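Section 5.1 Outputs to date
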Amino acid sequence: MDLQINGRTALVAASTGGLGLAVARALALDGAKVAVTGRRADVAKRVAADLPSAIGIPADLQTNEGVDTALRRTQDELGEIDILVLNGPGPKPGPAATLSSAEMANAFHSLVEPHHHLVSRILPGMRARKWGRILALGSSGVAAPLPNLAVSNTGRAALAAYLKTLAAEVAEDSVTVNMLLPGRIATDRVGELDQAAADRTGVTLDEIQTASRRSIPAGRYGDPDEFGAAAAFLCSGPASYITGVALRCDGGLIRTL
């Protein structure tokens, strides 16, 4: 299938590793010009060098200064941004019963505010050009809150509500707004969560991962490239009638429709 993104400019937040990198790679291989962003300059440049038509931008997109840097360089070197992929580091695990006020505030500060800032800067241009794709990389916790991830569940649900509201407001301008929710994808982040679960419960990492695989109908963890392919489709031309959707890429993990 021709995704019709050849020559389009994509800014992918937090894309030097994990799911962000998988999405950046998928978009680049389908012809998009990709701005790879990350806090470490050497890593961002190295990742971009391995992709066609990509640049590496050292920037912390959790800060306004980092957003300014990323937008300026992307627009100067690649052109106006057609595709925005929202992504960022996941907060520490922890229960809801002992969630502090500071941690609750941080859920909004880290998982909603930076993404809102990016959208508010880039969306006007997309609407004016009558074409745009905004895709947030979320968590299956949006569909079914995950145990011991209270901050993540709270912040990502708030982001989902904002994006769902936005999707209806900009659809007439041919701008789509969607979320892609990973289940157990084989990334460093999932490995860290598995290790935290092993430490918390007093069992081995292998036991945690074996039990996790058994809970997934597909019987395995997902490959990052599978997630990247799903993301690339949602950012494509043929996906122009899909908006306001939170699509799960989880091997059947979440049992609701």
